[in-house]
């Protein structure tokens, strides 16, 4: 099933409540929330307080993308803040399995993320544990970058893995440079959840979300 997850990184932070509520009214399926620590990625965004602030404003699931060194240090904060799904980067911790278990043990969905330079084989041993795999289709750290088409082979590889393994029960998400031109190829390769920040906010929200959904559904 297609799910569109606008990234609030492209929202107007001085009007975040308005933008979150407008996204829900416009038909967003999830809210993608990018947390950047200035270490794992060369940019900073915001912390768990903002997630706590958003939580009571919307019924949408909060899809939290931690771009943070040693994310296990912050998992509890993001659970308490009301995240529905917490994703940690495979490259950011020596204890990937433990970090994912911490999230799952709290009854929250857990996701693993891979950077453009990381192969699917690197995360194979955690695939039976996760609820979502996020394939970065740009280098993490900034919105508004150009989609890297070579990442689609990883999406297809994950879709084939899921098909072949009865114990695999994860959605495949793509993040970075997703727009009306790139979403069809992602859907064709097997992606289910599509993060779109700059594209969604560059026009009428409802029209843009609808355009993305239609393109993804037609490509399947
Ligand atoms: O995680 C990230 C960037 O690191 C993303 O979620 C971006 O915020 C998506 O932005 P667009 O590429 O859609 O503008
Ligand atoms: Co993201």
Automatic annotation (TrEMBL):
Listed binding positions for a divalent metal cation are 32, 34, 65, 175
Entry's InterPro entries? Aldolase_TIM (IPR013785), Ribul_P_3_epim (IPR026019), Ribul_P_3_epim-like (IPR000056), RibuloseP-bd_barrel (IPR011060)
Keywords of the record: Carbohydrate metabolism, Cobalt, Isomerase, Manganese, Metal-binding, Zinc
Biological or metabolic pathway of the protein: Carbohydrate degradation
Q: Which reaction does it catalyse?
A: D-ribulose 5-phosphate = D-xylulose 5-phosphate
| Isomerase listed as a keyword | yes
What CDD domains is this protein classified in?
RPE
Which protein family is named in the record? Belongs to the ribulose-phosphate 3-epimerase family.
Q: What does this protein do?
A: Catalyzes the reversible epimerization of D-ribulose 5-phosphate to D-xylulose 5-phosphate.
Can you name this protein? Ribulose-phosphate 3-epimerase
Gene name tied to this protein: rpe
């Amino acid at each position: 099933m297609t799910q569109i997850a606008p990234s609030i990184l492209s929202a107007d932070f001085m009007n975040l409540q308005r933008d979150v509520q407008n996204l829900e009214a416009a038909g967003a399926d999830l809210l993608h929330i990018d947390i950047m620590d200035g270490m794992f990625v060369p940019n900073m965004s915001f912390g768990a307080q903002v997630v706590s602030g958003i939580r009571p404003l919307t019924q949408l699931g909060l899809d939290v993308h931690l771009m943070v060194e040693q994310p296990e240090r912050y998992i509890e904060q993001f659970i308490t803040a009301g995240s529905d799904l917490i994703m940690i980067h495979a490259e950011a911790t020596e204890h990937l399995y433990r970090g994912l278990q911490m999230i799952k043990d709290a009854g929250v969905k857990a996701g693993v993320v891979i950077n453009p330079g990381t192969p699917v084989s690197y995360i194979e041993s955690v695939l039976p544990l996760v609820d979502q795999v996020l394939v970065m289709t740009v280098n993490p750290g900034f919105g508004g970058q150009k989609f890297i088409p070579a990442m689609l082979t990883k999406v297809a590889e994950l879709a084939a893995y899921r098909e072949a393994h009865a114990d695999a029960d994860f959605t495949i998400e793509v993040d970075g440079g997703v727009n009306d031109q790139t979403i069809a190829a992602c859907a064709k390769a097997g992606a289910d959840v599509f993060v779109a920040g700059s594209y969604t906010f560059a026009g009428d929200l409802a029209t843009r979300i609808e355009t993305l959904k239609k393109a993804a559904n037609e490509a399947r």
